[in-house]
Amino acid sequence: MQKHFCSTGTCIPGKHYMVDMSGRIELLIKEYIEKGRYFTINRARQYGKTTMLYLLEKKLREEYVVLSLSFESADEYFHSLYSLAEGLMMDIGDCLQEQEVSETILKEWNEPLSERFPMRSLGIKISNLCRNCEKKVVLMIDEVDKSSDNQIFLSFLGLLREKYLRWQQGKDVTFQSVILAGVYDVKTLKIKMHPGEESKYNSPWNIAADFTLDMSFSTDDIISMLREYSEDYVVDMNIPDISQMIYDYTSGYPYLVSKICQLVDERIVGTDSFSNRKDAWTREGLLAAIKLLSKESNTLFDDMIKKMLDYPDLRKMIQSILFDGYSYPFKREAPLINLGVTFGFFKDQDGIVVISNRIFETQLYDLFLSEIAIGSTVHY
Question: How does pLDDT run across 213-229, given as a tens digit for each residue?
């Protein structure tokens, strides 16, 4: 089956042209998994988190039992402590069965939970599982911030934290590592404890190690991906220059890199101006793809607009940077700056906050100009 570029869902090495992530995966295992660290992979939307987890799981299964879950469609889990514990028990049971653990372990895991003390019961199951498995056990949960604004989620994090601390003291057995993936950092989520009560920062995930692995694509990363493509299609193109141009516009934002390549391959090749691949994989062809990208609706740009509506103060800050030339010192501790980095809007450039890439800068600038023009016309 012919490979193609992928800008939606999980990238699969055998199906898609993609950056070689093997070095990052090996480093992640060495620095985090083997050292027994619990951590959160929090990056902006479509920044490659799910693909990273997929590749990590595939590699870890050689030596570990991997419990790979997602809260993407698990809203019903968070109605009560019991429903969360039971939902997790079912999902983990499926993972164990898939990895062919012994029938004895499976049978013990599937024993009913205590209805009065579901989290305590789940904790005992986790200890027994990790004690009896021949391999160490790793838990990873994607989309962990989907249902994270309530006390039930805090109770789950509290369970993981308690077992981790007891494990460190030699008093318990638990997961070798826990990886939570989402946009927001679970350590700094605002949690609403009860209806009508003021939101507050109150997460027990302070045991988590800082995740510092760079998930953006470098120019060399893009070169490796395009080299494989050019060999498959026998395309004579200036790979270093094209890769550098893609990086200059995207700053290595994974979705944008893949999307531009996909547009060149699927939408630019065969047009009147670019009849073949050699003509399309040029500066002019890339500019045509970038122009297409700026005009089309996609989930990333739609989410960008939504964030502007949800966070008016962040919107004003971005406008002041783009239109008024304001410079802000880069300090992640400042809530608005941290929010902008979380959403992928900001980056640090020599200690100053700047828009993270040229495509975002153009999109935001055009969005604000359009709104100003429409507002002026309506007012007139």
Answer: 999 999 999 999 999 99
Q: Which two tokens stand for residue 215?
A: 């998930």
Q: What is the rounded distance in angstroms from the CA atom of residue 229 to the CA atom of residue 248?
A: 20
Q: Which of 204, 89, 209, 206 shows the shortest CA–CA distance to 153?
A: 204
Q: How confident is the model over 22-59, as pLDDT tens digits?
A: 999 999 999 999 999 999 999 999 999 999 999 999 99
- Pick the closest to residue 28 from 288, 167, 215, 300 (CA basis): 215
User: Rounded to an integer, what distance in angstroms lies between the CA atom of residue 217 and that of residue 259?
Assistant: 13
Within the chain, where are the H helices? 22-28, 49-60, 81-98, 103-109, 118-132, 151-168, 219-233, 239-250, 254-263, 277-280, 283-295, 299-310, 312-323, 335-342, 358-379
In whole angstroms, give the CA distance from residue 190 to residue 203.
8
Residue 302 structure tokens: 């739609």
Q: Return the residue matching tokens 């990273």.
A: 52
pLDDT (tens digit, 9 = 90+) per residue, 295-312? 988 899 999 999 999 999
**Residue 61, token pair as written in the block:** 């299964």
Exposure of 246 in the CB half-sphere (CA atoms within 13 A): 34
Q: How far apart are CA 102 and CA 226, in angstroms?
A: 44
Angle between helices 358-379 and 239-250 (to 10 degrees): 50
Closest CA to 325 of 334, 333, 317: 317
pTM as predicted: 0.91
Q: DSSP per residue over 187-239, as a string?
A: GG-EE--STTSPPEE--SGGGPBP-----SPPHHHHHHHHHHHHHHHT----H
**Cβ(260)–Cβ(287) under 8 Å?**
no
Complete edge-to-edge strand list for the sheet that includes strand 64-70: 38-42, 177-182, 136-142, 64-70
